[in-house]
Amino acid sequence: MAGAPRPEDRPISPHLSVWRWHATMASSILHRFSGIGLYGAAILFAFWLMAAAAGQETYAQIAPHFTTWYGQTVLYLIVAALAYHLANGIRHLVFDTGMGLTPTDADTSAWFAILFAIAAPIGLWALLSFGA
After folding, report:
1. Within 10 Å of residue 125's Cβ, how many Cβ atoms?
2. How buried is residue 80: exposed, middle or buried, by Cβ count under 10 Å (0-12/13-18/19+)?
3. Distance (Å, rounded) from C-alpha 69 to C-alpha 73?
4. What's the rounded Cα separation, in Å, for the pair 50 and 44?
5. Is the entire prediction scored with pTM above 0.70?
6. Which of the two ends of the chain, N or C, has the fewest CB atoms closer than 10 A to its terminal CB?
7. C-alpha–C-alpha distance, residues 50 and 61, integer Å
8. Angle subtended at Cα 56 by Cα 52 and Cα 62, rounded to the nearest 5 degrees
9. What is the pLDDT along the chain (132 residues), one digit of tens a residue?
10. How far apart are CA 86 and CA 88, in angstroms?
């Protein structure tokens, strides 16, 4: 009758320090972070709507925060999270069709989603600043 396996005989699960970082790994982590960030953005949006509904005096107290460096940073990050989550969601919809699953295609689409998240807020800013 065999006893319990000894610890040295058990398979060792790879740890993050064993794996080489690559775009698809970063894409998976960023997708989770962007989803969490969008929950925070929804809460901020609800507070913004409540301030607008409360009247001009209440809204005047929060409006200056949008033009500060930290307000602009938060707005950039919200648009970047939304753009990334959208692009990565479309990427996974394509994966569900069975296309784009080779490592090269998956890396390319992961980089596209990451670069789109960086470029989308800049493009939106340009469009709003300089017009269409």
Report:
1. 14
2. buried
3. 6
4. 10
5. yes
6. N
7. 12
8. 60
9. 566 767 676 666 666 667 778 899 999 999 999 999 999 999 999 999 999 999 999 999 999 999 999 999 999 999 999 999 999 999 999 999 999 999 999 999 999 999 999 999 999 999 999 986
10. 6
Alpha helix ranges (H) inside the chain: 23-54, 56-62, 69-96, 103-130
Q: Can you read off the two tokens belonging to residue 58?
A: 């209440």
Sign of CA pseudo-dihedral 40, 41, 42, 46 = positive
Residue with the two structure tokens 């005047």: 60
Structure tokens at 81: 């999270």
Contacts of 68 (CB under 8 A, 6+ apart): none
Cβ–Cβ < 8 Å for 81, 41:
yes
